[in-house]
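Whiteboard transcription, Tuesday session. T.W. wrote the structure tokens on the left side:
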């Protein structure tokens, strides 16, 4: 018999964690190795419990969100698979999660059968997206939006947020503090933004934002 899939469950709502644990309880194919209620706790438990797969919620205030927690986990343990589980399925959020390293993305209304199928798929090196998300991504790919896809450029939600903060004279330390990110993460985003837009200085970034009429509170 194959070893059970070592699974770390992460959500800030206790009732969700209990429900997920109950879904896997008694099934010899899975072993729940930890429950975390924040991104910070998820990172700590991943280092101690050696999960094969992390089931990660996205929105987990306070502290850093599920996407940032995933980045930190995969930085030290790139072999760990991450399956995002959220009530949100906006295409930019999904794209950001996938670009950050997620192997799958499910909605919280998923069935028991689909949840287990997704776990097995990502564990075996595949990717798994809920059907609603596939449809959203298809529509997003077909739609010309308001400038952040110009010339084939796609900026994630977080990149657009940081780009606007840079344009409105926030420095790296201020951005890191306001978004509760590390300085290194902010710098990585800034480099990625400049690379994608082929802009080499802050003045160029400011012009890019002003030309599109974006605002600091853009999300």
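and on the right, the sequence the group agreed on:
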């Amino acid at each position: 018999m194959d070893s059970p899939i070592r699974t770390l469950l992460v959500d800030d709502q206790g009732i969700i964690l209990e429900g997920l644990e109950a879904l896997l309880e008694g099934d010899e194919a899975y072993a729940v190795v930890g429950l975390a209620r924040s991104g910070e706790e998820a990172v700590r438990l991943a280092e101690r419990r050696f999960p094969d797969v992390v089931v990660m919620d996205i929105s987990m205030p306070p502290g850093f969100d599920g996407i940032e927690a995933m980045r930190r986990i995969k930085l030290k343990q790139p072999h760990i698979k991450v399956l995002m589980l959220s009530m949100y399925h906006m295409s930019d959020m999904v794209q950001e999660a996938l670009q950050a390293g997620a192997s799958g993305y499910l909605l919280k209304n998923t069935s028991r059968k689909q949840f287990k199928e997704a776990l097995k798929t990502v564990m075996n090196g595949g990717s798994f997206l809920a059907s609603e998300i596939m449809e959203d991504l298809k529509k997003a790919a077909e739609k010309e939006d308001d400038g952040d896809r110009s010339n084939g450029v796609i900026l994630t939600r977080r990149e657009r947020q940081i780009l606007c903060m840079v344009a409105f004279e926030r420095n790296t330390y201020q951005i890191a503090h306001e978004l509760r990110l590390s300085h290194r993460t902010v710098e990585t985003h800034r480099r990625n933004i400049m690379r994608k837009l082929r802009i080499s200085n802050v003045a160029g970034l400011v012009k890019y934002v002003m030309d599109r009429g974006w605002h600091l509170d853009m999300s």
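Someone added at the bottom: The chain has two domains: 5-139, 150-212.
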